[in-house]
Every structure is written in structure tokens, then in C-alpha cells.
Amino acid sequence: MGKGRYIKGRVLSSGFFFWICMIVNYVIDASAIINGYPLNKGDNFTVAEVICEIKDFKSKIRLDEAICDGKIQIVTPSDESIENLEKKLLKSGDGLRLSQPDKMVIALALDFKGKGKKVKVVTDDYTIQNELKINNIDYLGVLTEGIYDIYNWIKICYGCKKVYPQDYPFDDCEVCGSRVYKKRIKKNR
Predict the structure, then answer these.
(1) What is the rounded CA–CA span in Å between residue 100 and residue 7?
(2) pLDDT of 7 strictly over 60
(3) Is pLDDT at 5 greater than 70 in this prediction?
(4) How many CB atoms lie within 10 A of CB 84?
(5) What b-and-e string marks burial along 90-99, b requiring 16 or more CB atoms within 10 Å of the CB?
(6) Can you give the residue range of the structural domain that contains 58?
């Protein structure tokens, strides 16, 4: 089977066996383009914000050629998926570490999943992979194997250990004046 196909076998009540073939929609992150992921077919999608993240000349040329050849399509995720993602990011704490393009990539994957489509995000970004794992969305690394565990993030004071909400805007604790930092905590599934 070539890239872009997902095959699943089923047995009917009559005893006959048949195959279901679903197209896999690949959502491409900037790290995948920069790290040389082959954009061979037209079932690749990305968001406009990813294009702005591509800085090196070679990757820009590869991306421009892929867009012109129809090997990758630029799609905007729905407002509903973006809003749902923002709510989920508050729970996981990943919003502290994700850029806007990263969030849009995940929102696009959520759009495809919400429409019942098979989706796989191509990224080497561990924070994106963490959020995808939380949302039960498949991912594929280009240069890395990917993450094994899910982690959440909290803001916590270095001195008195007071926990702050993600949107706490200051770098110093309001109680003791110590530095507030982001702490990774392992999530139990």
C-alpha cells in the first residue's frame, strides 16, 4: 500500500470478508517540511500560519513547489475547532508552549477528525504530539520517533510552590516574589 491509504478488513454477518480503504489526510507542520518529509501526493494539508514559519530558502522552495504542484493544500480550520482546542489546552497546559501556527495545525487535525476522516499529523514537535495524543489523533515524526507519555504543564512558584493559572501574566510570584516557571507533570491515563 502506498502513502495515504488506510486499509481495514471487516467480516460481514454473511461470513464474507471485505476491505475498507480510507484516504489518510496528512496535516503537515513546519518541522515536517524543514526536516524533509516527502510531499508526494495531494492528500497533504497545512495552514497558512505554517508558511510564515518556514524561514530557510531550501524549505521555502520545496513548499512553494508542493503548493504549485497540488501536493499540499492550504486549509483554514473552523472557528469551532479552534475554540474547542483552546478549551482543551487550558486543561493540558500545552497552551503555554504552543505557538499560534502549532495550534492551527492541531485545530485542522481536529476538523478532519470531527468530519470522520482519517487524519495523521506529521510533526517532530513534542508539544504538538502531546496534544495530539491527548486528543487521540495519530502523528508521525520525520526525524524523531515521537513521544511515549502524556504530560501536562502548570505554572508554579519556585519559592512557595503556589500554582498559578496558565494565563498568569507575570514572571514573579505575587506571594513571595520568587520566579514563576512552567513545570511538566506526567498525566495518568
Answers:
(1) 33
(2) no
(3) no
(4) 16
(5) eebbbbebbe
(6) 24-140
